[in-house]
Design a protein that fits this description.
By secondary structure, the chain is of the alpha/beta class. It contains five helices and nine strands. The protein has a four-stranded parallel sheet. Strands 3-2-6 form a three-stranded mixed sheet. Strand 4, helix 4 and strand 5 form a beta-alpha-beta unit.
């Protein structure tokens, strides 16, 4: 392994014989998981005082919102972009549908300098979509409804083995 600020000068003959390659610093971090489109309610209850009728109307809209904003998201997706913005070498591994949502997610990763060679497109399933909607059940508020997605069909054959050979950290 090469440390920061130093250069790789020579590779051992043992490594060359085994067909391994020596990779540059910084080490590759692989984020494995879900990339989804979240539709988040755009209605928020304000803390400022308003007429009671108006407040009741806004409170009802919070539970059944008329409008949503689309956000590209997913735990591993967010971590990959955050690490890349901090200057890390990052690859994302996962599966998305071969649809406009999936292509936009991969495009966003590319724009943020995240390697996408581990992403698989599947025309048989759709990219994950989550409608973030508040519901009130059994005395508690619940949020989110994720529909089945391409990530659920990720199998061993979808794994990019080249990334596994190169990765130093797995998130």
């Amino acid at each position: 392994m090469v440390s920061p600020g130093s250069e790789a000068t020579d590779t051992s003959s043992d490594e060359e014989e085994e067909g391994k390659e020596v990779y540059d610093w910084p080490p590759l971090i692989c984020c494995f998981g879900e990339a989804i489109n979240e539709f988040v309610s755009t209605v928020r209850v304000s803390n400022r005082r308003s007429h009671p009728d108006m407040y009741s109307k806004w409170k009802i809209l919070q539970w059944t919102p008329p409008e949503f904003a689309r956000v590209l998201s997913g735990p591993s997706f967010n971590v990959a972009i955050a690490l890349a913005r901090q200057g890390c070498r990052v690859a994302f591994m996962g599966k998305v549908g071969d649809d406009a949502y999936g292509k936009e997610l991969v495009s966003s990763l590319n724009k943020n300098k995240v390697q996408t060679r581990g992403v698989r497109f599947d025309s048989q399933v759709k990219t994950g979509v989550s409608y973030m909607n508040l519901t009130y059940e059994d005395g508690g508020a619940k949020m989110s409804c994720v529909q089945p997605s391409a990530e659920n069909s990720f199998t061993e054959s979808d794994i990019n083995e080249d990334i596994l050979k190169e990765v130093f950290f797995f998130v």
